[in-house]
Task: structure prediction
Amino acid sequence: MRGIGSLRAALGAGWSRLRGLGGLGSVERSNRAARIMVDGFDSEFGLGLGSSGVGYADYYSKSSAVNAAVRVRAEAVSRPSLRVMIRELGGEGGYRVAGADDPLQRMLDRPNGVWSPGELLRVTETFLSLWGSAYWGIERDESGGVSELWPLRPDRVRVVPDRDRYVKGFVYEHQGERVGYLAEEVVWFRQVNPLDEFGGMSCVPPARLAVDMGYEALQYNRDFFRNSALPGDLVITSKGTPTDEEISEFYARWESRFRGAGKGHRPVLLSGGLEASRLGISHRDMEFVEVLRWPVEEVSRAFGVPKVFLGHLEDATLSNVSTFERFFWRNTIVPELRLIEEAVTRSVAPLFAGVGVERRVEFDVSEIEALKESENDRVERQVKLVGAGVLSVDEVRAEHNLGPLGG
Result:
């Protein structure tokens, strides 16, 4: 293993940038994007999962309700386009929509050679829902300019905290290899976690108990029909003490006659002082159907997705579905869009800053049907305020990112 001195000599000027991660044994530059391969990185520096545990992602394939909630949220987040807003510093005008040739807009429209903008947003929201955190790795080309944005799986990312700068960097672990990122090379999205400031809060924990209960009820039901007349609570008693050979023969004959859903409810004949009795409760006593509904209700609350979008259509009508859709967009998706906007504006937009120009990003929700009514109400209110002399026309135009009319 090379020492620190030889590393400094090998890396030359690049060492000053990599030195900030600290605690490195063997370091090797992997490309011109200031990524580094990190060997022997102390595990104590790897923070960030906290109460959003690795196993929470398993619920995506384990629970149909969780799967549906995550997909609905991810599809909704990817619907509006992410556009760049630009304004000249020191000017009187507000932000305006940047053209398609804007360098930041080109990057958002083509984040890398594999992922489309919609795919990048869908996987980002999927990560946020399941882990409470999501990360984009920022890659640079040989000239030092931003060339690509790549999603990083949250369960493989560790945050390296810093006493002075809060975050020193990030370490991405995959198949035994560790890749280091400087703090400015990662876009960090996260939900507020009161238990861990370096880890986001997943949507899964509040609904976990109900989801586990539903999953175990389904397993019980599957095993019941698989075993048919061999439920786990069936007890066979004998007046005598059977030998091991007699017990084995009894099980073999019993299973050959009754095991399997196609052999259920066949008549039973017991002899030799044997008696059969049942323990436990029936499906009706367990309210089996109600047990399967609980996960849907809990997932609906935890993920902020109305039950009607999780396949629960019993009380659905044309009127209340429209109301649920507006509720979903206003209370769940719009706040999520703001979270993504702020993170990209904070971490990516400054990398494309020009002289005298400021950029930010926002989602264009003007074509989202569920939000159009609220937009119409807002315009109607602004018209009334202008008519009453409370606002000027230019003030209203500024809210819509339009320049002043003047005069």
In short: The radius of gyration is 30 Å. The chain has three domains: 4-203, 209-289, 369-407. Residues 4-203 form one domain. Residues 1-46 have pLDDT under 50 and may be disordered.
